[in-house]
Specification:
single chain; alpha+beta; 6-stranded mixed beta sheet
């Protein structure tokens, strides 16, 4: 008589018999890495962002130049220039100056905050009125706020999600080292079984477990190898 194991007993048997098998590494393109398991820790080698950035459309300022201002008594600042999207901020902001910046644009050296354009007024003579005081760091992301060289981004053994793929792309990882997929044989047994493509006759049933187990293995990150149906 067959001694059928419970699912928990089967899992324990798998752990016991296969725990000594270590996965081998392989390098894959980033777009093919989702769902794969990291073979090694991933550390950043650069800053993200690589420059001080604005999170709003507005004017980069020295926060101290805006302290105490209001709609009734705006701070009047000289417009030193404008930074376009994708351009480097090639200027150093002096006291009493501001610089127009777009959302995501570079913030010039010397600025420590950005005032939203809704709280400003362009007087048309090269000056801008600031109607709301800014705090240092306001509406800005500073260089390296997200990632800096040496920071561990993802740990070995992590199953990569789509968000992880984005993080890897941000640090310039076009390829990533992952564990090779385990190849697992799937064998169906039974004189009564026929393939799902066949029409069973009296006494026959379609092989459901083969397809089910192969799909389950694939969802776990394995590579199923179907050996088909063998007789009792």
């Amino acid at each position: 008589m067959l001694n059928v194991l419970t699912p928990d007993e089967t899992l324990e048997l798998i752990k016991k018999e296969f725990a000594h098998i270590k996965p081998q590494p392989e390098t894959v393109e980033l777009c093919a890495a989702v769902g794969r398991v990291l073979y090694e820790d991933v550390e950043a080698t650069e800053y993200v962002p690589g420059f001080d950035r604005s999170t709003v459309d507005g004017y980069a300022v020295k926060a101290a130049d805006t302290f105490g201002c209001s709609d009734a008594i705006p701070a009047i600042l000289q417009v030193a220039g404008k930074v376009l999207m994708g351009e480097e901020a090639n200027m150093i902001l002096a006291e009493g100056q501001c610089c127009a910046v777009p959302t995501g644009g570079a913030v010039p050296q010397g600025a420590d905050s950005v005032v939203m354009i809704e709280y400003t007024e362009d007087y048309g003579d090269g000056t801008v009125g600031i109607g709301k005081a800014a705090a240092p760091g306001q509406n800005m992301i500073f260089k390296g706020d997200d990632v800096f060289p040496g920071k561990t981004i993802l740990k070995k053994g992590r199953r990569l999600s789509s968000q992880d793929i984005g993080a890897l792309a941000a640090i310039g990882k076009a390829k990533v080292t992952v564990a090779k997929k385990p190849r697992i044989a799937v064998i169906s047994t039974g004189d009564e079984l026929v393939s799902p493509a066949e029409t069973p006759t009296a006494g026959q049933v379609r092989d459901v477990n083969g397809a089910l187990l192969s799909a389950m293995l694939a969802s776990f990150g394995a590579e199923p190898v179907e050996f088909g149906i063998i007789k009792d």
